[in-house]
Amino acid sequence: MSIRILPPEVASQIAAGEVVERPASVVKELLENALDAGAKSVSVEIAAAGRSLVRVADDGAGIPADELALAIERHATSKLASSEDLFHITTLGFRGEALASIGSVSRLTISSRTAQDPAGRRLRVEGGLIGKLEKIGAPVGTVVSVEDLFYNVPARLKFLKQDATERRAVDALLTRYALAYPLVRFKLSEGNSLSLHTAGDGDRRAILAALYGVDVARQMLEVIADEEGFSLTGFISPTALTRSNRREITFFVNGRWVQDTPLSSAVVQAYHTLLMVGRYPIAALFIKVPPEEVDVNVHPAKTEVRFRSPDKAFSFVQRATRRALLAYAPVPQLAPQNLWGSPTQPRQIDPTWSLAHEEERSAFSGQLSEDNRQTTDDGHPSTVNGQQSTVDSPPSAFPHIPLLRLIGQIGATYLVAEGPDGLYLIDQHAAHERVLFEKLMAQHAQKSIPSQTLLTPTVVHLPPASNRLLEEQLPVLQHFGFQIEPFGQNSYQVRALPVLFASSDPAAALRALVEDFEEDETPLQNELEAKIAGRVCKRLAVKAGQVLSPEEQRALLADLEVCASPRTCPHGRPTMIHLSVDMLERQFGRKGAR
After folding, report:
1. In percent, how much of the chain has pLDDT > 90?
2. In angstroms, how far is the first alpha carbon of the chain from the final one?
3. Which helix (H) or strand (E) holds 467?
């Protein structure tokens, strides 16, 4: 095949693929242009999750009339003059590719006016073809409308995700920039729905309250540190406020949002030994370094940076975060007598647990003897109480567990029990999770999930991205016995909970529904109802470190014994470890060599 030069329109679309990945990419590029122009107010409007419209309006300096046509040409920029400038970049944009790339894969209209121009100018670009410059009346600033994104590249259009996912990406982007630029007023809307509106008064904690709610904002710990030209400000969460992934660890370097794995690891390392495995903090941190100490020209979307001294940056962030964490929330020194909790005041957990289940235990014991633990031909359980297990047990000839005799609790985390075939160590959190899950799914299958109205409705404020996710799940939640109603911008009112969770914290239950548990949900990912049930049960089950009374321990064992899949929690983790009598005898040398 002979070598040829690509047509300009093909080259433009290839370049656009590096810059414009989705509607959120368009918003990011236009937003950064507005901030570079000194805007104090930025309004973003989208339609159809940004597929049909993205409009960004700002009150910045504007583009001079005689430069508007040049602004949409490739590699046209006012921010660089020579190659040396690449190592002293102080602006968010610098390549001069954004408008040209966006215009090559959409129908773009740009209107702008400077304070010196008596009138504004408007220019249209369709699929890379530039139209005629028009004179219009306009306020000082710039408005860019991007319509029908990827209309001329249908293959790219097919790769966009569902509208809800694309909306969440835009929401998350505006949320981050609102925190990074508290002196700028941000507004995000889709039709008549307003997702974000900040005051621009410089109060970052007020923005945290608007995004996460007053309770979360009040708990966040402020970080302020300076060291050898490096400056760090922002907020981190206390050890009691965590998430199941790193997605809410946000970094801005010299005003630029970056996704930097080493920096995120530095924050996680600062919490070492203070957080449970699999839990991560919330953080919004803003680093300022001399421009020559960081290279921002290492990624097409400018979302990655390279520090001249990466070890220095890592250590600085880790030390500053750890110092702030310990200053505001010192590690408690527990007296030995308090480590196990007070025996005279056992923690009260779900009151709906039965304290005996003696009739069920007797019936179940007889059933085990009669039909060999109710297994099918391949050794797996069929049904329990007429209900099919939602998550399969591990392959085993005996998927059920025998009746157990409670011995006690270890470390306020594990139950020790004796069975006819050996010793059982039970993880109380995983076991309770399985019990709650099977009860809830059994009620779901019978379409009879009772709910209990709260005496005082609880108002919960969610970030914009979580708000979008919850909107999609409201019909399913209503079936599960939740009564949740919109209550203002990004807020919901919880009026009733399923009776099974009536004694639980309504806010914790609601947040569990929208928190991403990532790989933990693999066994449930194809069943929306099971996923929702699994999320709630995981959050509301008793936790490791909670002291249970002997009655509560026995009730948990009794409930676990009648579960269809007692050996795993709904997310696939084991609920117990079995040490057989034979294995114990071998370990103690009673049956020859180990």
Report:
1. 34
2. 69
3. helix 464-479
The Cα–Cα gap between 310 and 240 comes to 30
Distance CA 465, CA 170 (A): 8
Tokens 């900040």 sit at which residue? 198
What is the dotted CATH code of the domain comprising 8-194? Answer: 3.30.565.10
Q: What is the pLDDT of residue 535?
A: 76
Q: Let me know if domain 207-328 sits in CATH 3.40.50.300.
A: no
> Measuring CA to CA, how many Å separate 313 from each of 68, 231, 317?
40, 10, 6
Q: Cβ(536)–Cβ(473) under 8 Å? A: no
CA–CA separation, 87 and 83 (whole Å) = 8
166 with 51: CB under 8 angstroms?
A: yes
Fold of 358-581: formyl-coa transferase, domain 3 (3.30.1540)
**AA letter at 114:** T
Coil, strand or helix: which one is 235? strand
Q: pLDDT digits over 453-468, tens only?
A: 888 888 888 877 777 7
Check residue 87 and report its DSSP letter: G
Q: What is the Cα–Cα distance from 533 to 390, expressed in whole angstroms?
A: 11
Q: What are phi and psi of 102, to 5 degrees?
A: -65, -45
Could you tell me the two tokens for 380?
Answer: 């797996």
- Residue 447 burial (CB count, 10 A): 7
Closest CA to 56 of 170, 201, 224: 170
Beta-bridge mates of residue 375: 381
pTM value is 0.65
